[in-house]
Design brief:
The protein is mainly beta. The chain has one helix spanning 2-25; strands at residues 37-42, 46-48, 53-60, 67-74, 79-81, 88-89, 94-97, 114-121, 127-136, 140-144, 150-153, 162-167.
Length: 176
Amino acid sequence: MRTTAVRRLRRATVLAAAVASLSSAVVVPAAASAVPNLAVTYEVTASAVGKARNLVFVITNPYNVAASWKFNLPLPTGLDFAGVFTFSENCMSANAADEPPLFIPPRSGVDVPTVYVEGSSYVGEAICVVSVPVTAVAEGTYSTCSANVQGLTNLTANFLCQTIRFEAQHPHFAAE
């Protein structure tokens, strides 16, 4: 009888150790770091000077949290909005503008075209995409990096630098 009790005790001890080991292996992100992520890209890597190409903001919600967020991005020197400012989005709640909202202090110094984006991620909304048409009036390569994002609130932005090259339009495509 004593051996049976010892065996049961050993099994219970091994089982408890296994459960404790598995429990410590599962890492749940801390609530403070469980915020949506921001990535920025261009719809193409090369374009003709003067053509409108989308600057694309992708907000992903990998932790499935509800969060209001905002940020602004000054365009690289040489890029500007393609005509009158417009944007498109596929989000439950997002807005973009070329003027700062009331809660952002006015810019000072050189007037740089800046995109202001704000919105909310909802539980169940895995991705939100906001696109803003931009163009260049001169040939050049323009880069946007995570370090360029300003006023980042309730988002993380650790994307690699993204570039777009604008070139003079090839004569063969001049009719397009």
